[in-house]
Amino acid sequence: MLLITRFGLTSAIAVLFSAASAQNAFTGAVGFGAIATGGNSGATYHVTTLADSGNGSFRDAVSAENRNIVFDVSGYIVLESAVSLSSSITINGQTAPSPGIGIMAGEVSASDKSNIIIRNLRMRQGNLDSDSGKSAFNMGGATNIILDHCSVAYGQWDSIDGVGITNITISNSIIAFPIGQQFGAHIEGNQATYFGNLWVSGHNRQPLSKANSQYINNVVYNYQAGYTVANTGGVFSHDIIHNYFIAGPSTTSVSNYYYQINAGQSVYATGNYADTDSDGVLNGAQENKVGSAVVLSAPWASDSATMADRSAADAYTYVLANAGASPRDEVDAFAVSTVQSLGTEGVIYTNQASTGLSNGGYGTL
After folding, report:
1. Ramachandran region of residue 4, left (φ > 0), alpha (ψ -120 to 50) or beta?
2. Matching InterPro entries, A to Z (predicted)?
């Protein structure tokens, strides 16, 4: 019997989730994943241990549907194997005591699941995971998923993998320092929203988006290739609005902020800037020419214009101040400071330990 599993919401949790509804995952949720309701009407499960498994563990918390998951502990949960999420759950990392909660050394998988909300969670795979074919977060075949204010780093296959998705949002998150393939996110499927994210030191796929997509108010730093479609990506529509691409020491071709966007794509691109001189000053120029794509005169998605309420320069300021899990830990602080060098610092890593951060590069929670 799990005494830590409680059915019905306590008054504090009721206040925390009162904004959630069938129409909106939470106040401020945007994009295609915002229709997720998670486990907001289900049981509340308290994670009370950092152990990999057993009563009160994160693995046990996500093993059943219709749960609001809250954290009574802070620190890293070190996975002994990949952990699979159930459908219809909400993971509320913001409930953890300071300095917050993180998952390390294994994959968090929402593969083939639906209706999941994840907020303020750190997912740091790294090479302590012996399976280099897995990612930090996998949502292949998933439907109605929103990641908000998450921090994803040291993914081996991809930081975020999502082939066969329907209605996902990645928002206000930091996707940094992929190792292995050194890819940020691989998304294929129906509809995807990327809003207000900070992408740091990835070789490519920031993201690779083979889907009808919204890409708004993102900041991409030290890229070798930025927003990517790939020539085999199929025919999709893309709203690319008010993003900032900033070259760094690893950037080998500064014009690859848009990559492999072919004539089969339809793109609305406006207000995007690229700073390519690596001089330590934010002084980019507008760059809205997107390969051989069909140029749209208006956004294809009805809410893209409303979402794009910050200029690229304002997005830079806002994203660097607000993206990622809160409070910021050592890894995210390092990612942000790397971006703030504005072209003078940055490495595309093959091993998290090479960052020189504590705890073998994972940082200490």
Report:
1. alpha
2. Pectin_lyas_fold, Pectin_lyase_fold/virulence, Polysaccharide_Lyase_1
Which residues touch 321 (CB under 8 Å, ≥6 apart)?
Answer: none
Residue 268 token pair: 């609305």
Instruction: Name the nearest CA neighbour of 272 among 308, 307, 323, 248.
Output: 308
What residues does 228 pair with on adjacent strands? 208, 259
CA distances from 338 to 38, 105, 126, 208, 343 (A): 34, 23, 19, 23, 9
pLDDT exceeds cutoff 60 at 20: no
Q: Which amino acid is at 204?
A: N
Q: Residue ranges of the domains in the chain?
A: 38-350
- What's the order of all strands across the beta sheet hosting 244-246? 75-78, 101-104, 122-124, 151-153, 174-176, 198-200, 219-221, 244-246, 273-275, 285-286
Answer whether 0.70 is exceeded by the pTM: yes
Choose, from 59, 124, 205, 328, the residue flagged as catalytic: 205
How many Cα atoms within 13 Å fall on the side-chain side of residue 152? 34
What's the first-to-final CA gap in the chain, in angstroms?
30
Cβ within 8 Å of residue 218, ≥6 positions away? 194, 195, 196, 197, 198, 199, 243, 244, 315, 319
Quote the DSSP letter at residue 315.
H
Residues in the chain: 365
Q: Which fold would CATH assign to domain 38-350?
A: Pectate Lyase C-like (2.160.20)
pLDDT in tens, 120-167: 999 999 999 999 999 999 999 999 999 999 999 999 999 999 999 999
Query: Residue 54 pLDDT more than 80?
Result: yes
Task: Give the separation between CA 274 and CA 103, rounded to whole angstroms.
Answer: 33
Which helix (DSSP H) or strand (DSSP E) does residue 170 occupy? strand 160-171
6 is catalytic: no
User: Any idea which residue has 């206040």 for tokens?
Assistant: 15
Going by C-alpha positions, the residue among 165, 47, 149, 186 that lies closest to residue 113 is 165
